[in-house]
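call fold target=Cytochrome P450 monooxygenase
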Amino acid sequence: MAPVTIGIPATTNLILIAIALGVAYNIGYALYNLFLHPLRKFPGPISYRMSNAPRAYYNWRGGLSFHVADLHAKYGNVVRIGPDTLAFLSPEAWKDIYGHKAHGKPEFPKHQAGYRPLESMPKTIIHVDREEHAFLRRQLAHGFSERSMRGQEPIIGAYVDKLIERLRENVVAGKNPLNMREWLNWATFDIIGDLALGSSFACLENSNYHPWVSVITGFIVQTNFMITLRMIGATRLLKFLAKYAGGMSKREEHTKFTKEKLKQRMELGAERPDFIEGFLRNKEQMSFGTLVGNASTLILAGSETTATLLCGAVYLLTTNPECLEKVTQEVRSSFREDSEITLLSVGNLRYMLACLNEALRMYPPVTAAMPRQAPKGGGTVLGHLIPEGTQVGVWQWPINHAPELWTDPKGFHPERFLGDPRFANDRLDAMQPFSTGPRNCIGKNLAYAEMRLILAKIVFNFDLRLADESRNWLKNQKAFNVWLKPALLVHLTPVQH
């Protein structure tokens, strides 16, 4: 009698059974999310309540922030944008999620997968728990103090003067538009390179990107792709790409550059008025990997975001000539000579500050939410009891453009930040570009001073006119958490004083 074997039909049946079980599991999971999940009472599209796939799709395409704004317009100030994820649109939600908590009350911790899609990625001041965050922030505090800002002023001022010098060398009286995206990127990267790691990237000197700067944009896009894979549960694929396929090469290159620069900075010693000084004074309490991770965060947070806001401010001012005329008048009537414009003296330019705030509202450097999760035992947001582990956040772009919170939200109106009665009903506290609470951006004051200095120097030295090719600069821009900016072409005409 011949042996019995499992033939092709039997194998096919096993495969079909496996597929059927997989389909049944996913259908069951989707139905549970829809009808039995603790978040089932919150509104949102059916597909979003059933699966993370729709949210992942928009995130991958660079349009999730704008789509969340549409969802808020349809479903209200609390929207379920994933089976375990809620988006909030309320100034009070900032306080509930990110604000200081009463003694003994747990904070809403960082949702790690939204910051570190790979668990092997180092934790930095952005990711760590409350105790370690407090320790790291104390080490950084000196570098961001008012005393340190005075010591940093010659460093920052020298790069801004170099920017003006290089612009004058490259402009031909209103004939050839300059790509201000590049020049502003080069200036802010040179400044942060010096302030964070002791030496510039020489971008302004060479009128070109340092290889590291070129890597950073790719690193940001790759991180967004990694977060997208985590959304749909493709952790095995993510780990495979990171380990074998070279799919995360930008992350590795970024880390390599950071290590090299950090070693050079450590050789200079701790006595220097920069951000890393506090870390180096206590380097025995931190691993080299911790130093690398935090140095990387300083470079990213202090360069790309500042350049992005300045690009947005230049575009919005040049497309609103009456505002540009006002800020130009304020700057040129406040200073007789370029040398009078300093990191501290620009603090008196009220209208310029209003313009920067309005640019932050309309074109926030970070468009998405800074994800948190409900603590152990759950938490409360806007009076809603939020189950433990639920991902929550306030999305920057949607809340900055909500018509129920802002008068004419699509219009550029710096006057809304100057007490103009036309905008008396605006909720200025809805805008939190630097976040709020104990984990707000430690570099907020320095960022404002740097942005005001750069913009004041440019407006003092040049008349600005947007090139026709950049009239639709904002249209169809993608935002992978931060913006993927096209060229910003501006005609500059030197002004003699």
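return ok
Residues 8-35 form the longest helix (28 residues). The mean pLDDT is 89.
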